[in-house]
Specification:
The structure holds 2 protein chains of 2 kinds.
Chain A lengths: L1 E9 L4 H14 L3 E5 L10 E9 L13 E6 L2 H6 L4 E10 L12 H10 L3 E4 L1 H8 L5 H9 L7 H12 L4 H21 L1
Parallel strand pairs in A: 1-4, 4-5, 5-6
Antiparallel strand pairs in A: 1-3, 2-3
Chain B lengths: L2 E6 H11 L2 E6 L6 H9 L1 H5 L10 H13 L3 E7 H6 L1 H10 L5 E7 L13 H7 L3 E2 L4 H18 L3 E6 H4 L1 E7 L22 H23 L5 E3 L7 E5 L2 H8 L8 E4 L1 E2 L3 H10 L3 E4 L5 H6 L9 E2 L14 H9 L33 H13 L6 E3 L24 H11 L5 E6 H17 L5 E6 L17 H8 L6 E5 L5 H13 L4 E6 L3 H11 L1
Parallel strand pairs in B: 2-3, 3-4, 4-6, 5-6, 9-10, 9-12, 12-13, 14-15, 15-16, 16-18, 17-18
Antiparallel strand pairs in B: 1-7, 5-11, 8-10
The chains are: A alpha/beta, B alpha/beta.
Chain lengths: 193, 541
């Protein structure tokens, strides 16, 4: 198997948590993994992305070539569009629909959604709302991970195991809230696929 | 027994060093090198062994402290970002002359593409300049393995070894096979060649000749290095030299099977023999290297005949920014588009035009915001005020909505440039510098300004941490005013204010008054970084 993912969002939104969980699951499954992160200045409210590559074969490059990503997974709709050149012909976009507006020239939400819809293989919904329903808004990133999980060739039980381990130190409540968020995201995505 | 772990390139190198008997880590935070020291600080073995891991005031003090530990026979690392090596350049270059006793790794993390830096300088030039070997891991596993290898190399040749990382390796995670326990640390012992540590001309002249004589041994070590290799190919139209992570992009371009002859370079000085073999077997040469055209520059003198060498100078490889799988594949395609197995670049899609740039910005609740708000208001009535900025989060004051600074050059330059501007007749001349940058390189400049009572306003925007790199301890915390007074600033003009919205009017008045003062003024504006404040609040819960 091989899944190349561009994780996107705005600095501080929590995309790296998604990478940490998938990394733990991949390690457990004896898969190869490379994950390039962004640290430093761009973390201060700017656009951030992480290239995550998971494969059963050795991986050469830390970066995904253009037209090479199987998935764009984004916590913010406009940020999903930013990495379109990296998405392969058959790739999917899985994104939160709620804009994060911290710039003056943020485009109209309808324009963003229209541009995303042009790409047929799209899963998009209000992940903050889903997170609030089953856990707290802070778990939006776990809803996103759940929504992306049908496109990743790792069994959901294994990802849930990784969620349990990653959040273990924060107590059982946090673990179960995050698992609930993950599952809710997965269900919603399956409906849209 | 081996263990498998998911590690950043930075972390892999740090863990490799710990398991290889590290006794001391020395560093000043700087992207993308910061996580090396942070990993040493939190590692259980390093805690148990009490491995030194306190942050240093700057890269120069870090380098010298590491050199002192090496003098005493123990293994040490010092880590910094590429421009940090400029700060440490004096002890670094001279450490080639003193040599090393305990294994000494100088780790410089370069930032091609300037993700969080002011230039793209390539640290390999420094190793060449200091005439010492350098290592350039191509992946996280090599970063781990090269720590022990580097210490051994350093002790074998009795010189420091430079390890060059780049952002995409420092900040990329992969599965790394590691040992499960650390070997013992070195016992304290002194250098066999004790005289060469006193760099007086008579000693240095002799030592310089010895170091020059060693160069051939360094080349031989590179030629037999497990990290360098030559693999002949079936398509000899072009022979490829790929160094560091450029090697990965090359492999990516061919799905792991490059039909052309390839020399992989991860240890310097360049493995001349391997490169000559490649040259003889190929009709022309392509150089793929992350950073500046170092190898391309070097190899021109290696050969007698005149085959073409392609690379950054010839425009086949992009000259600026970091490499990526696409630019490397394009460079190969520019020479041998039909090479077997070469990944074809599909038509490029554009980013939709509605996507707006989202530049980084100061956090909501950050004290630097209040300082800039007040400073802009205080300067409104002047025709051409100039504000000299510095390196840190507050460099973002250059952007909207503040547009508040006129320069940002290097650590500490705010104070000294403001002084130079005042010397030229500029008024108002304001310097703005953070607390950590102030103790890194601002104190000596302030002494210059104090000694001449230069009519400048120095704002030390103290957030009690090293903010931009993620909140590392700042060396001046709790003593900024004392430092200024100790250097001789007049107590009437060393003022402190909490940079809070409620103090806005008072801050404006204070800035105005001190700008009108006909001599040196320091205003310490203080408020804890919102990021570290949040973290501290969570820890208390």
């Amino acid at each position: 198997m091989k899944t190349d993912i561009v994780l996107a969002g705005v600095g501080g939104q929590g995309i790296l948590t998604i990478a940490t969980i998938l990394g733990a699951a991949a390690l457990k499954e004896n898969l190869y993994l490379k994950q390039a992160e962004v640290h430093g200045m761009s973390q201060r409210g700017g656009d951030v992305q992480s290239n995550l590559r998971i494969s059963s074969e050795p991986i050469h490059s830390d970066l995904i070539p253009k037209n090479g990503a199987d998935l764009i997974v984004s916590l913010e709709p406009m940020e999903a569009l930013r990495y379109l050149p990296f998405l392969s012909k058959d790739g999917w976009i899985v994104t939160n629909s709620v804009p994060f507006v911290n710039i003056d020239n943020y485009p109209q939400q309808e324009e963003v959604e229209a541009a995303l819809s042009l790409h047929g293989r799209l899963v998009m919904f209000d992940m903050e709302q889903v997170a609030k329903e089953v856990a707290t808004q802070r778990s939006s990133n776990l809803v996103l991970l759940g929504a992306a999980s049908p496109f990743i060739d790792i069994q959901p039980e294994k990802i849930i195991e990784a969620i349990t381990n990653v959040f273990a130190s924060k107590g059982e409540k946090v673990v179960s809230a995050n698992i609930a968020a993950f599952q809710a995201g997965r269900v919603r995505a399956t409906e849209q696929m | 027994m081996k263990n498998k772990q998911l590690l950043l390139g930075d972390e892999a190198l740090a863990l490799g060093a710990i398991y290889a008997g590290l006794s001391g880590a020395y560093a000043y935070p700087g992207t993308p090198s910061t996580e090396i020291m942070e990993y040493v600080q939190k590692n259980p073995v390093s805690k148990e062994r009490k491995i030194h891991s306190h942050w240093s005031s700057n890269e120069k003090t870090a380098m010298e402290e590491a050199l002192g530990m090496s003098f005493c026979g123990k293994r040490a690392i010092t880590s910094m970002k590429h421009v940090g090596l400029n700060v440490a350049a004096d002890p670094f270059v001279n450490s080639g002359m003193t040599g090393a006793n305990g294994g000494l790794l100088v780790i410089a993390a370069d930032d091609p593409s300037m993700h969080s830096s002011q230039n793209e300088q390539d640290s390999r030039f420094y190793a060449d300049f200091a005439m010492i070997p350098a290592l350039e891991p191509s992946n996280q596993q090599e970063a781990y393995d090269m720590a022990k290898y580097g210490f051994e190399l350093s002790e074998k040749f009795e010189v420091p070894v430079l390890t060059r990382l780049v952002t995409r390796l420092s900040h990329s995670r992969a599965v790394v096979e590691t040992e499960t326990e650390a070997i013992p640390e070195n016992e304290l012992h002194y250098p066999a060649q004790a005289r060469q540590w006193v760099l007086m001309p008579a000693v240095s002249k002799k030592r310089n000749r010895a170091l020059i004589a060693q160069q051939e041994d360094f080349v031989k070590a590179s030629e037999s290095s497990p990290f360098n290799s030559y693999k002949p190919g079936t398509d000899n139209r072009i022979g490829i030299i790929a160094s560091g992570i450029a090697y990965n992009y090359l492999m990516e371009a061919f799905g792991g099977n490059c039909p052309c002859p390839v020399v992989k370079v991860s240890q310097y000085p360049l493995p001349k023999g391997l490169i000559k073999q490649l040259y003889n077997d190929s009709e022309a040469v392509l150089v793929l290297e992350e950073g500046q055209p170092f190898i391309e520059n070097k190899i021109t003198g290696f050969f007698d005949t005149e085959k073409k060498i392609y690379g950054k100078y010839t425009g086949n490889v992009v000259r600026d920014g970091e490499l990526d799988p696409d630019s490397v594949a394009a460079a190969i395609a520019s020479l041998v588009p039909d090479a077997a197995g070469l990944r074809k670049n599909e038509e490029e899609k554009d980013v939709p035009s509605i996507v707006a740039p989202r530049p980084p910005m100061l956090c909501q609740g950050c004290g630097h915001r209040d300082v800039y708000g007040a400073l802009n208001e205080a300067l409104e009535s002047y025709e051409s005020p100039k504000v000299f900025g510095d390196i840190g989060c507050y460099t973002l004051g250059f952007l909207k909505p503040f547009n508040a600074i006129d320069t940002c050059v290097d650590m500490g330059a705010s104070i000294t440039m403001a002084k130079g501007a005042a010397d030229a007749g500029q008024h108002p001349a304001v310097a703005i510098i953070g607390d950590s940058t102030f103790t890194h390189s601002g104190m000596t400049g302030l002494l210059d300004a104090i000694n001449e009572d230069s009519p400048i306003l120095v704002i030390i925007s103290d957030n009690l941490t090293t903010g931009m790199t993620g909140g590392q301890d700042s060396q001046g915390t709790g003593k900024i005013e004392e430092i200024c007074l100790g250097l001789g600033a007049h107590p009437d003009h060393v003022r402190t204010i909490d940079s809070l919205p409620k103090n806005h009017d008072e801050m404006v008045r204070l800035f105005k008054n001190e700008i009108e003062h006909k001599g040196l003024s320091v205003v310490v504006s203080r408020r804890e970084c919102i990021q570290t404040a949040r973290r501290h609040a969570t820890q208390k819960k």
